[in-house]
Every structure is written in structure tokens, then in C-alpha cells.
Amino acid sequence: MASNSAGKPIEILQWLRELGLEQYADAFRDNAIDAKILPTLTANDLRDIGVTLVGHRRGLLNAIAELSRGRSPTGPAPAAPEGQAPERRQLSVMFCDLVGSTALSTKLDPEDLRTLVGAYHRAVNQAVAVYDGFVAKYMGDGVLVYFGYPRAHEDDAERAIRAGLQAIDAVGRLDAKSDKLQVRIGIATGFAVVGDLIGEGSAREQTVVGETPNLAARLQALAAPGRLVIAAGTRQQIGGLFDLEDLGPQQLAGFADPQPAWMVLREGTEVSRFGASR
């Protein structure tokens, strides 16, 4: 049995199932990987036991890191320490929404729907973890993510877009039987006040106040299925790193003035971040 930092036991086979990587259960067992060994595994170790795909190795390493921080594979990231004073931070906020979830709920058995939504949450969580994002909240079929909190990086806007593109691809590859799963994503970058902890238990979360989260949510609603839309603040941060389609000024609910928006098409053709930023 493995365990997280809170001491809650985690059965390795079940853990692999939750990650969608149960095909490696025999390899873990045959190589005597137990609770003591699991936190020490490296990329080379995983390669040696037969995890040949880079994405699978990265997913396992990210999940092991989550366990060491006391986070479940599908649970939200831990909130900042209690008592931390509100502070003004530049954030890139990502809103991700599962397309057609209401229609799915009428087609699927509730247990099958729960399993499917869990797989969707894990796919987004793993994409976000690669780029050090903070999954702040799951809202049914929606996911709220911060880049720049609690850890800030100079390329948080770029990280947010890369995570979003990876999430779109990962969700699109999930097995939903006759239905193709798609998400729509909105990203906005700007200043917000990261405030106090509110709520209790599993509903406990860090408040973020400002225009940026609202703008990200509105852009998500604007995006077409399988697409990612960004605001002007994010556009200014990424230079030519991505190929974009200018959607022009958009009249969004709650905003007095039309807001410029761009749809991210793909990775750009610039050879370096320096060249892209210039």
C-alpha cells in the first residue's frame, strides 16, 4: 500500500486505475514496487520496467509528486497556508468546460457518467500539472486553474496555453463510446487579488477577486468546442509563440466595452522564445 502525506492509504492498483494506466499493474508488481519504493521512482526506473511512452512516464511522475504533496490524482491542489494575507498577483486564469455534458447525462447511466467525468478531470489535471498550474476548483464539468499562483513563473501565460492545448488533445482521446468528448477553454491574464480561504472541508478554496477570472469565464463560453480563446493580456505575453486567429472585439456579458479575443490555432513556427517575444 502507498500513502499520501496525510497518511491516507492508497492501493497501487487502484491508483493506477484512477490514472488510466492500469496496464502497468503487472510491471509494478513484478518489479516489487511497494509503498517505500513508489516515491523514489525516476523516469529511468519507469523506462526500465516497461513504461516506454513519454506521456505515460510523465503522468506517473506527476501523480507521484501529487501523492507526496498529499493530493489525490483527481483532487484540487491544496490552498495556500491559512492566515496568508491577501496579495495582488498577476495570474493567467484558465476556465475549462466539458462540451455537451447535459446531453451526456441523459444518455449515460449515472455511474458511467461519474466515471467519464472523473477521467475528464484527470486528463485536465495531468495537463495542468506538467506546466505547474494550480487547479483551484472543480465545478461539475468545469475546471478553474491558476497559473502564477501559488508559484509564479515568467512564462505563466505560455504555460497556461500549452496546458490548455494539451488538455484539449487529452480529453479528445478519452473513450466515450459513441460520443467524442470536447472541451472549450478561455484564458485571461492580468492582476487579481488572491484573498482569504473561504468555505469548509472539500469546499474550502482560495478567493481570487478581479476582472481576470470573469474575463476567462466569458471567453470560455465564447470558444467553439475543442478550441481555446485568449484575452488581450495573454496575447501580449506570448509574442509569436502560437499561431492565432484574431476574433476581433467581442461584446461579453458584464463588460461595458468590447474585449479583444484571439483563438489559438497551434504552436507557432518561431525557432525560439527570444525570437517569438521580439
Topology:
Blueprint (H helix, E strand, L loop, with lengths): L1 E2 L5 E2 L1 H7 L6 H6 L12 H6 L5 H15 L18 E12 L2 H7 L2 H21 L3 E6 L2 E6 L8 H17 L10 E16 L6 E5 L1 H12 L5 E4 H7 L3 E9 L8 E9 L5 H5 L1
Parallel strand pairs: 6-8
Antiparallel strand pairs: 1-2, 3-5, 3-6, 4-5, 6-7, 8-10, 9-10
> How many structural units, i.e. domains?
2
Major beta-sheet overview: 8 strands, mixed
CATH class of the largest domain: Alpha Beta
- Which structural class do the helices and strands define? alpha+beta
Shape: globular
Helicity, as a percent range: 25-40%
Mean pLDDT value: 81
Tell how many strands the DSSP assignment holds: 10
The end-to-end distance, rounded to whole angstroms, is 51 Å
Specify the number of helices.
10
The appropriate CATH architecture of the largest domain is: 2-Layer Sandwich
| CATH superfamily descriptor of the largest domain | Nucleotide cyclase, GGDEF domain
Q: CATH topology of the largest domain, anyone?
A: Alpha-Beta Plaits
Radius of gyration: 19 Å
Descriptive tags:
single chain, alpha+beta, DNA polymerase, domain 1, Alpha-Beta Plaits, two-stranded antiparallel sheet, disordered N terminus
Give a written overview of the molecule.
With 278 residues, the protein is α+β, with helices and mostly antiparallel strands. The chain has helices at residues 12-18, 25-30, 43-48, 54-68, 101-107, 110-130, 156-172, 211-222, 232-238, 273-277, and strands at residues 2-3, 9-10, 87-98, 134-139, 142-147, 183-198, 205-209, 228-231, 242-250, 259-267. The strands form 2 sheets. Strands 3, 4, 5, 6, 7, 8, 9 and 10 form an 8-stranded mixed beta sheet that branches. It has a two-stranded antiparallel sheet with strand order 1-2. Helix 6 (110-130) packs antiparallel against helix 7. The chain is globular. The N and C termini lie far apart (51 Å). 35% of the residues are buried.
